[in-house]
Every structure is written in C-alpha cells, then in structure tokens.
Amino acid sequence: MRHIRIFDTTLRDGEQSPGVALSLDQKLEIAHALARLNVDIIEAGFPVSGALEFEAVRRIASEVKGPVIAALARTATLDIDRAAKALEKAEKPRIHVFTSASKIHLEHMLRKTEEEVLEMADEMVRYARRYVDDVEFSAQDVMRADWEFVKRLYEVAIEAGATTINIPDTTGYGTPSEYGALIRRIRDEVVRGRDVVISTHTHDDLGLATANALAGIENGAGQVECTINGIGERAGNTALEEVVMALYVRRDYYQAYTQINTREIYRVSRLVERHTGMPVPPNKAIVGDNAFAHESGIHQDGVIKHRATYEIMDAELIGRRPAVLVLGKHSGRAAFKKALEDLGYAFPEEKLSQLFRRFKEIAERKGPLSSDELMALVESEEPTAHFFELAHVQFFSGSGLLPTATVRVRTPQGEKTATATGDGPVDAVFKAIQEVIGFRPELETYRVEAITGSTEALGQVTVRLRHGEFQAVGVGVSPDIVEASALAFLDAAGRLASGRATRHPPTLEEVQKELG
Ligand SMILES: CC(=O)SCCNC(=O)CCNC(=O)[C@H](O)C(C)(C)COP(=O)(O)OP(=O)(O)OC[C@H]1O[C@@H](n2cnc3c(N)ncnc32)[C@H](O)[C@@H]1OP(=O)(O)O
Ligand SMILES: CC(C)C(=O)C(=O)O
Ligand SMILES: [Mg+2]
After folding, report:
1. Which residues does a 6 A CB cutoff place in the pocket of ligand 1?
2. For the ranges 2-6, 140-144, 237-241, 505-509, which has the lowest average pLDDT?
C-alpha cells in the first residue's frame, strides 16, 4: 500500500472562494482542527498578499504542531522572503513557489516568454532552497499547456531543488483519463525514479476535481491538494473528505492509504462551513445532510435488514451519527413500523396498516414527519373526545408589562378559570392551564411552525409534556400562536389525564436510581 500525503489548502485556495475572508482567530482554529485531522501539510496562506495573511501564516507556523506548514509565493524574491519570514518558527516549513505553464497564461497574464519563465523558475526555486529544504513547485494551467514546455519547466524545477512538483489543473479543464495520463508521463519522463513527490491540484469547474485527483493517484501521484468541503476558487477544489474516503472505502482498488483521522472529518467540515459562511449542500458526498439519510421505502427496508445493502461506509467512521431514516412520502411500512417501535409503540398489523395509510396521506401533503409529529399522528387516531376543552383565553403583554393570561377550560368536573403571570404570554397561559387542570406536567419540547406561507399564516404548535413516567404530544392550530399553544398544551395534558399517554423510556438517572 502506498502512503498518499494530504495537502490541505482550505486556508489558501479554499479562502480564495469569492466572498470568504477568514479572521486570524478563525484561521488558527481551522489550522488546529486540520492538525487534529492529521493532514500531512497545511497550506496556511500567501504571506505577501497582506498583513493579516502574513500574521496568520506566522501564528499557524509557530503554534500548530504536527503537519508541515506551507506558504505560497510567486516566482518573486519579495514573495519568497515574506513566506520564509512567516515560516520562521515552523517545525517543518515548506515554501510553495508557483508560476504558469500554458501559452495563454504566459502571453496574457505573466507577459513573459517561455525562456523567461524557465529562468525565473530556476532562480526562484534555488532562492527558496536557501531558506528551506522543502520546496514545492507548481506551474498553473498545466492541463492546457504544451507538453514539451511542461517537461522542460518541471525538469528545471527539480534540478533547482524542488522536492515536490505539483501539477495544477488550474481551470478544471482536464478529464480523468487525460489528467491521469499527464501524471504518468510526468512520473515516467520527468521524475524518472528521482526522490521527488508528484502532487495533484485539481479544480471542479466540470465537476471532475475528485475524479481527476484519484486518476492522478492511480498514475503515480503521492500527494493530493484538497480543501474541506471542496471550497476554493470558482467551483472549488478537490474535496478532502471525498478523496480520503474514496481511498479508504476502495483501498482494495487503489492500494493506497492516508493518515487522516477520519472521525474528525465531519467536525472540521462543520467548522469550515460556519467560519466561511459557505453552506454545505444537503447532497454533498460524505458531509452533506443527506449523505447518510434514507427516505425511500425500499432502501429503508434494506438498511433495516442489513445496513450494507445501501451504505458503503458507516457514518460513525467520519464522526457522524448513524444513518437516519427520514419518514416521508417515499417511505414504506418497514421504516414506519421501525420508527413507531423506536418511539415505544407496538400495534397489531391491522392497526398498523390504518396508521400507515394516514401517515402516507399526510406525508404526501406536508413532507417528512418528525418523531413528535409521528407521535401526534398516532395519538390523534386514539378514541379522542377532548378531555380538556379551551373555552376562552385572554392575555396581555408588552414592554414594561407583566405578561398575564386568563384561561377558561371545560374539564370533566365542569368549567374552571384561572389567571397567571409568566415570563411571556405563552408561559403565562401554560401556568394558568396548570392551575385549572390541577397538575403540573413538565414541558419537554415546544415547536411553532407556520402551516401556510402568508402573513395570516396558521400557526401549528407541537408540545411534548411529561408527567411522572408518562409523556404525551399535543398539537394546536390557530392563526394566533398563543391560542395554538394553549390548545396544544390542553391536548397533551388531556392525554396524560385520561391515560392515553405513552410510558417514556427511563432516563440514565432513573435507571441508576433503580439499580441503587
Ligand atoms: C491559481 C491561484 O490560485 S494563484 C493564487 C491566487 N491568489 C491570489 O491572488 C490571492 C492573493 N493575491 C493578492 O493579494 C494580490 O493579487 C497580490 C498581493 C498577490 C498581488 O497584488 P498586485 O501587486 O496588486 O498585483 P495584481 O494582483 O493586480 O496582479 C498580479 C501580478 O502578479 C503577476 N504574477 C501572477 N502570477 C505570478 C507568478 N507565478 N510569478 C510571478 N508573477 C506573477 C502578474 O503577472 C501580475 O503582475 P503585473 O502587475 O506586473 O502585471
Ligand atoms: C497556486 C496554484 C497551485 C493553484 O492554486 C492553481 O493552479 O490552481
Ligand atoms: Mg488552485
């Protein structure tokens, strides 16, 4: 098995994502998280580009231990001087010198001839080697460049002392077979057995970044440049989590491994999402919300019978909770039954079919149901006659006023009225209801949703109450949220009072108490 080095460039190419500007503290926090992930190299930034960037690289170099810390530099002495200065305290510093290889870059961007670029590459790699032993060399846009020039350029860089040669498909133009062939050619015709690591750097303009990186590995690359969540210039870079998990899950095929602590992947992904403000799409491989969720009945049935029927890796492996079954319009009986069992219900087949039909009708109209909604569905199918009925609710609140509510409720013992104050109108209403019904269930969850999308939207309130060892869910709907809350509370309290509640699973403390 070959070791593939993971070069993380979230803090450099990743931060080049339009609109992203990380603070010093955010960069440091991400760098520490990358060290816990055990990446081999952290590209901490491009020091010449600004004072904050310089300081971030300097702090990361002095504080983050473990990985090699790399800093980017153009083929210019000032860039290399700044990179070297920022890396002064690094245990394992690397200077990453880059130029360009394609005609279009040379003519229109660098405005240099091939000979001038060769000379700059030679001089600047040598210059960087005066500061550090570990120098990486890249030539942008290799995929669109002429092979003869690419060959000469990388040959010059190796002769000048580059220890890693990176082959960027800067514009995301290559296909996997082309990029793979290019890496193979670099290995056979440029590196020729010398002790130089070949690195991939692929962009996702055609959605091929990960496929291209893997093709590079198959053809001799020993380092992959990538970012968390695949962020980066334009459509982004190769996603670290994708390449790492592809190498792990298909180690039989690639015969290669990384040293990544995969259980940290999800945590770092969330951190980068939060700090960059770039949301991870739900269908994103490995780290998206749906990556380990199943809604289709056939898949759910398979997963319940044997996880591996529809899962090629365990969610826990990347630090996520186990796969979830989403109960929606595509779900089948098996998943529905399992969800009810998980909530503590067991029904005969006939009753289950009746509940399942009702569930399908609702899910087709409103989308997936949460477990509270499922409980409400089951309980609303019980013989109901409301035990407590709201006759009247009145409340007032406002700035400088003590929120106060009065409720009148029809109970089996007749109509009762109570007034209470609270932290807000809903709290005051709940306290007044507790007075009226004569017991004090604990509010475990409270959720408000708009049922329709306009300003006169109907509000749906779902509460879960607990009393002793019983719990019940109640739902209330009204254009007035406070009234919907009163209805929901009375619905759940009625279930508790009339013995139509479920026994809740014991808490850890209760089990410990029972066991003495
Ligand atoms: C593919 C990549 O990701 S490359 C990295 C890209 N990242 C960034 O650009 C982010 C940080 N960049 C910056 O802050 C700024 O662009 C700086 C500080 C680097 C340079 O700023 P400025 O001096 O204002 O130059 P500006 O950005 O307008 O133009 C880039 C200059 O660098 C030159 N250049 C580009 N690449 C290289 C290179 N590899 N080697 C030498 N010079 C280069 C360009 O030809 C241009 O030079 P010119 O001004 O003589 O025409
Ligand atoms: C600086 C280089 C490696 C780069 O990011 C690219 O070419 O995409
Ligand atoms: Mg790039």
Report:
1. 13, 16, 46, 48-50, 74-76, 98-99, 109-110, 140, 170, 233
2. 505-509
Q: What is the DSSP string of 186-249?
A: IIIIIITT-S-EEEEEEB-TTS-HHHHHHHHHHTT--EEEEBGGG--STT-B-BHHHHHHHHHH
Give which of 159, 141, 127, 258 is closest to 202, Cα–Cα: 141
pTM for the structure as a whole: 0.81
Let me know the angle formed at the C-alpha of 230 by 309 and 274, rounded to the nearest 5 degrees: 100
If you measure from the C-alpha of residue 220 to the centroid of ligand 3, how many angstroms do you get, rounded to a whole number? 20
Structure tokens at 116: 């001038």
261 annotated to bind ligand? no
Ligand nearest to the CA of 20: 1
203 a known binding residue?
yes
What is the value of ipTM here, to two decimals?
0.97
Q: Tell whether 237 is in a known binding site.
A: yes
Task: Report CA(248)–ligand 2 centroid distance (Å).
Answer: 26
**With DSSP H G I counted as helix, E B as strand and the rest as coil, what are the percentages for the chain, rounded to 5?**
45, 20, 35
Q: Which two tokens stand for residue 101?
A: 């290889």
Query: How remote is the CA of residue 386 from the centroid of ligand 1, in Å?
Result: 72
389-502 folds as: Double Stranded RNA Binding Domain (3.30.160)
**Cα of 17 vs its chain's centroid, Å:** 17
**pLDDT tens for each residue of 269-316:** 999 999 999 999 999 999 999 999 999 999 999 999 999 999 999 999
Q: CATH 3.30.160.270 in the chain, residues?
A: 389-502
At the topology level of CATH, where does 2-276 sit? Answer: TIM Barrel (3.20.20)
Contact 500, 379 (CB under 8 A): yes
Task: Please answer whether residues 463 and 449 qualify as being in contact, where contact means their C-beta atoms are separated by less than 8 angstroms.
Answer: no
Among the bound ligands, name the one nearest to the CA of residue 141: 2
Alpha carbons 176 and 243: distance in angstroms, whole number? 14
Domain span(s) for CATH 3.20.20.70 in the chain:
2-276
Chain segment 171-212, per-residue pLDDT in tens:
999 999 999 999 999 999 999 999 999 999 999 999 999 999
Specify the ligand 1 atom closest to the Cα of 79: 19
Q: How far apart are CA 412 and CA 476, in angstroms?
A: 20
Q: How far apart are CA 233 and CA 285, in angstroms?
A: 19
CA dist 333 and 22 (Å) reads 48
In this predicted model, what pLDDT tens digit does every residue of 331-385 receive, in sequence order?
999 999 999 999 889 999 999 999 999 888 878 877 888 887 788 778 766 654 4
Is the Cα dihedral 164, 173, 237, 207 positive or negative? negative
342 annotated ligand binder: no
CA of 88 to the centre of ligand 2 (A): 23
153-172 pLDDT, tens digit per residue, is 999 999 999 999 999 999 99
